[in-house]
Amino acid sequence: MPRARLRRRSRISEEVKPHPMVVNMLTKVEEIIPKWKIVPTKNVIDTAFKDPIKRETVTLPFFVLHGEADIVTDPEVSKAFNEKSSSSDKTIKLYPGMWHGLTSGEPDESIEIVFTDITAWLDKQLL
């Protein structure tokens, strides 16, 4: 796949990507030393699932939680996974203003909200 198309499909948050000049330099280094995977432009979903069919054939119940202000991983990745999976029992919860560390890096009252949501989802699964 051409690099330009790969960059457009990227789901790594734009806020944590290095300057384009740095990406260009890293791309050239990666061409010389291909085992160094140092260019941060790949689609996170593509790298999380070796078999692309499997991301669409997830049929188990799942609960996706994501901070809307997360700059480590783009919330759009979670939304895309939720939309593409074929599970009939899927839930996505986006937390406005929260970052990446939903269960440890947020203020205590926010962490409590997240754990309350997790517990409620698990309770629902047991019914």
Automatic annotation (TrEMBL):
Pfam families linked: Hydrolase_4
Gene Ontology molecular function, alphabetical: hydrolase activity
Keywords on record: Hydrolase
Keyword Hydrolase applies: yes
Source organism superkingdom: Eukaryota
Gene3D superfamilies: alpha/beta hydrolase
Domain spans labelled Serine aminopeptidase S33: 56-107
InterPro entries per the UniProt record, alphabetical: AB_hydrolase_fold (IPR029058), Hydrolase_4 (IPR022742), MAG_DAG_Lipase (IPR051044)
Protein name in UniProt: Serine hydrolase YJU3
Organism for this UniProt entry: Gossypium arboreum (Tree cotton)
